[in-house]
Each structure stands twice: as C-alpha cells, then as structure tokens.
Amino acid sequence: MDCLNDALSIMNAVYGPIHRDIADVSVQMALVHYHSKELSATVEAQQRAVIIYERLHGPDHHDTMFAYANLALFLENSGRFASAASVMSRAIYTNRLLYSKVHPDTASLLNITAMLLQELGKFEQSIVYLEEAAVVYQRILGPQHPQVGMMFHSIAITHGQMQNWREALEYEKKNYNILVSANLPENDSKMNECNIYLSTFTMRAVARQVETNQSKLSQNIAQNAARSMQKQIEKVQKAMTPEAPPATMASTRNVNELLSYINSGEKPKISVREKRKANKGGVTAPKPSEA
C-alpha cells in the first residue's frame, strides 16, 4: 500500500488529479483495501476512480460502467445496500447505452441489482430485474441453458420469500424441466436442491389452497346462516304485527249522515257502491226495522 500511495503522489504531481493512470492506481488501491477489510477506504478509492473515468471518458464508456459496477459491489460489502442499488442502476443504464439490452454483462448487472434489492426487502422489484435477466439469458444462451434454469430458481426463491407459493412452484418446475433436459443424474447437487424446493413449495401451495377453501366455506356458511336468521326474524315480525280490522259500513258513512239517521230514526240511503264495499268487508248491511 505504501508503494501505491507513493505512486499516486508522484502521478498527482506530474499529471494532475485527472489522469487515467491515477484512476487505474485508485482501482488497485481499492482492491488492496478490500482484501485488508478496510471497507471505508475501499469505497473512497473506488469513488475517486469513478470520478476520474467519468471526467475523462464520459458516462457512456465501458471503463466508467465497470467502475460504477465495482463501486456498487464495494458498497454492498460495506452494508450500504440502498447506495449500492442506486449505483448499480447507473451501471445498468450505461451498459444499455453501450451494448443494448441483450448482452451478458447486462444480465449479470441485473442479477446483482436484484440481489441488492432483496437485501433491502424490495422483493417485487427484485423479481422484475430477475425476470429481465432471465429473458436476456434466454435470448443469448437459449431457453434450455442451465443458466436460465438458475435464474428461474432465483425467481422461485424470491416468490417463496414473499409466500407466493403457487408462483414459486411454477418457476421451480421450469428449472426442473431444464435440469432434466440437460440429462443430469438424479444424485446431482442441483437436482437434489431442486427436488427439495419442489417438495417444499408443493406442500406450502397445497396448504395455502386448503386454507383458502376453508375460508370461503366458512364465509358461505356464515352468509347462509345470516340469510336464514333474517327470514325467521321477518316471519316473527309479521306474526306479531296486528292486522287492520275490516272496514264496516259505519266507517264508510259520513258523520253528518249518521247523526241524521240517529236523530230521525229513518233509514239512510245506501248506495250500490256502499253495499258492495260493506259485503266485501264481511259485514252485511243492516235491514231497516219494521215500523
């Protein structure tokens, strides 16, 4: 490290602070600090290299891209996952500018970013990056390549962390099919691991489905019981409600006519309509008394 510090001092005096050789020395210093477990010094040296590469070559240069990617990895190892994910996103952007979306480095950076997001607990975003990386590997290596199966396995595990057991089982089945097409023996470590996850995801998916069915059944039973109870309440209320008495002829007469009838003792005139109404109500019109 002393030699690198002396070389850095001489280059600063000869070339100035912005020079490619100074950036290369800074990268070497970052690696030495990293192996010495000096993480803060590692990040500082790599940040200096990133600034110099970007000043010299611009943001759309492969040296700048790899400097950002290495900085993200050093930040990850120092436990600064949010900063690492942000820096890695910058590296992915630069990589796409240089190589388009279909490139092995693009898939690798996407995979690393997904792992960083998992450390932050952002599993849904992580799945987006993993699925994109799987598509890139499929287009480069073919749909039955073992690397594609490994991406499916990573997606399955991420779904398992979110307790999406059905989705996890589907992706693990895709991984199993790829491993079988590669003619791997049953005692292979990858096959054993895949079988273990298949068994686990299957049991969890079945248990989740049984729980869902029981919940729906309980809801249906509760709804039916509530409807039956409501019908019984309506019947009781209807039985307790008194019926209105039938209309009588007296209730249909005018008060003045009734008073006149009482005072005069004469029979009031009853119209045909009143007779019908009285008969309909179950009351027979009274016959006039004989004199």
Word description of this protein:
By secondary structure, the chain is an all-alpha fold. It has a domain of 30 residues. 78% of the residues lie in helices and 0% in strands. It has 13 helices and no strands. Helix 2 runs antiparallel to helix 3. The radius of gyration is 44 Å and the shape is elongated. The mean pLDDT is 81.
How many strand segments?
0
Shape, please? elongated
* Terminal residue distance: 143 Å
**Percentage of residues in strands:** under 5%
Overall mean pLDDT stands at: 81
Count of individual helical segments:
13
Low-confidence stretches: none
Helix content: over 70%
Summarize it:
The protein is an all-alpha fold and 291 residues long. It has 13 helices and no strands.
Q: What key attributes describe this structure?
A:
291 residues; mainly alpha; 13 helices; elongated
Write the layout of secondary structure elements.
Layout: H1 2-15, H2 20-35, H3 39-57, H4 62-77, H5 81-99, H6 104-119, H7 123-141, H8 146-161, H9 165-181, H10 189-240, H11 249-252, H12 255-264, H13 272-280
Helix pairs in contact: 1-2, 2-3, 3-4, 4-5, 5-6, 6-7, 7-8, 8-9, 9-10
